[in-house]
Each structure stands twice: as C-alpha cells, then as structure tokens.
Design a protein that fits this description.
With about 140 residues, this protein is mainly α. About 95% of the residues lie in helices and about 0% in strands.
Length: about 140
C-alpha cells in the first residue's frame, strides 16, 4: 500500500508535466502557424489577382475576337441562319449590343471634351486634395 501511494503522486506529476509541455508545444505551434500563414497571405493574394487578371484578359479577347468571328460565320452560312438555337441568338445579340454602343459612344462623345469636363470639376479636385492630405498625414505620423 505504501508503494502504491508513492507511485500515484509521481504519475500525476508526470501527467501534469507532460500535459503542460504538450499545451506549451501546441501554443508555440499555433503561434508559428499564425505567423507562417500571415506571410503566405500576400503571395496567395498575388496569385489570385494574377489569375483574375488572366481571366479578364481571356474574356476580353474572346469578346473582341472569337465572338465576332463566330457570329460572322453564322451569318455567312445560309444553312445555319435557318436553324438558330438560343446560344447563337444570344451571341448575335451580344455582338449587336457591342457594335451599337460603340458606334453611339464614338459619334456622340468626344474624348477631349470629356477630359476637360472632368478636369474642370472642382469636386474631383477637392477629393484629390483631401486624399493627398490624408495620405501624407498618415505617412508623417509613421515618422513621428
């Protein structure tokens, strides 16, 4: 009985110390893991932005090159005009909307007039000056 009483405090002491060491190891692992993931965020964000950039370029190139070619081939083929499905009709409508809006914008608007109209706006100037002051204030606060 006496031997058993001596073993019990030792085992509880060993269990407590291993539990504490495991908890300390988990906390250190968690801290290092947080730091590791914090440094991975910019790289993941750049990868996402790069993927998004290429996706947008692909969509723009499809709209400006492939879509008009498909519509032109559809309209030039007399047999395909007879049996237009919904997708072909949607493609034709997209090209028509792009053509009409481009023609209207080029005929109605003049880019130099729009530039000088925006440049003459005092409200835009005030927002720009306010943004410059706020950014310079933040930068100067960083220097003390």
């Amino acid at each position: 009985m006496v031997v058993h009483d001596l073993k019990e405090p030792l085992t509880s002491l060993v269990k407590d110390s291993t539990a504490e060491s495991l908890q300390d190891q988990n906390q250190e692992y968690f801290k290092y893991n947080q730091i590791y993931y914090m440094f991975r965020i910019p790289f993941r964000l750049e990868r996402f932005l790069l993927w998004n950039f290429f996706f947008q370029i692909q969509a723009l190139l499809y709209t400006l090159t492939v879509l008009p070619l498909r519509v032109a081939l559809t309209l030039l083929n007399p047999f395909s005009i007879m049996k237009l499905n919904g997708r072909r009709q949607a493609e034709i409508m997209r090209v028509l909307v792009i053509l009409v809006s481009t023609l209207l914008l080029t005929r109605v608007s003049n880019s130099s007039v729009i530039y000088h109209w925006i440049r003459g706006q005092s409200l835009f100037k005030l927002y720009m000056i306010k943004a410059v002051f706020e950014i310079s204030d933040l930068l100067l606060k960083g220097f003390g």
